[in-house]
Amino acid sequence: xxxxxxxxxxxxxxxxxxxxxxxxxxxxxxxxxxxxxxxxxxxxxxxxxxxxxxxxxxxxxxxxxxxxxxxxxxxxxxxxxxxxxxxxxxxxxxxxxxxxxxxxxxxxxxxxxxxxxxxxxxxxxxxxxxxxxxxxxxxxxxxxxxxxxxxxxxxxxxxxxxxxxxxxxxxxxxxxxxxxxxxxxxxxxxxxxxxxxxxxxxxxxxxxxxxxxxxxxxxxxxxxxxxxxxxxxxxxxxxxxxxxxxxxxxxxxxxxxxxxxxxxxxxxxxxxxxxxxxxxxxxxxxxxxxxxxxxxxxxxxxxxxxxxxxxxxxxxxxxxxxxxxxxxxxxxxxxxxxxxxxxxxxxxxxxxxxxxxxxxxxxxxxxxxxxxxxxxxxxxxxxxxxxxxxxxxxxxxxxxxxxxxxxxxxxxxxxxxxxxxxxxxxxxxxxxxxxxxxxxxxxxxxxxxxxxxxxxxxxxxxxxxxxxxxxxxxxxxxxxxxxxxxxxxx
Length: 490
Hints:
By secondary structure, the protein is an alpha/beta fold. Helix content is 31%, strand content 29%.
């Protein structure tokens, strides 16, 4: 018997992070929302059944986004017109209540199946969405990383109310609810990272009929799908430099995929026309922010770098020491992931600074014993941090701190503060950003209760970026001190 086959094209992005503008690479313009939109529109014109999906993290990464707290991003995304978007962890950066407001501004559905009001078992967002297209029904289910709970702990009432349910069980519930309906293709639109996507695929019941996992969060750029338990898993890096494309032949009698091809398409002038209306809207936001933030904040003797998250860097040393100087603590543990670009300077405008350090959260001073500090640093240097440096929590240290670590034995050889070996009973005042203060046990392996036993923790600054900006503004020609904080024996 001949199969009843229909073609479906699914385009997908992930981790756009406010990457609105094209960049010049080797004299060619790459990426940008204008050409991304141009490619999506071109495919929609060429093909009959086209769906465009985004797997989380529309927000954070550009001044245009942070200046308008995501409102500009939603406006631009409305013009880009995705069919469905899943939540990412950075969608919560401006607060959960603000996110619920932004959702009302969106002209596209935002899905997340495993984010609940804890006590009422009520989902905060729609769990799934069904697209009817070309006589087919395509089910999208949104799954989010556990990190969102960490981000919302800063809002006390949210930390008590929001619970992340087990992703596998949630997928099973939704798929079971649709089992009597004619769903032709089921897509998980996740934001949990490539490795977790593979574990998720392996744990799914084949009877649920999940066909595809489109992921995000780990910024993994694939050349071909990774199949686990017969389910293709895809992801296309970060930003707007590329887009994923599935061309799928759907067996509408069997409600399954008969065959597919997948490509990671570069967004270039050669294959992507401009969307001039969208470009005009972006330029209005850009002109407004450029005018406000173009003043020179400071100058460095040369550009300083932050090439990797899981290493000591020049910028990390400079920023951590700047905070220590301003706050007067013994030590600053600055989240390495707070530094969002690989280079700053030699001329530093306010725009440059805000783009590279967009997190303006409070700073807390806590009392750590020498034993707790040693434990926290050893936890940071666990083997996972070297394997998956993009998403483990790593810290940059202020001046005066030194640690020598042996990776072979996974032990600290020496730890000193201002040249003196750290003893277990020593007591130090340590500055932490709010995110790490609220998630101390997860990121530092130190429980809040035991730290409070050393003395009361204090909020020493309401806005971290403002403190650092003032330090830059008052110091011309800042030099990296050249003092090595970490020595890692391989």
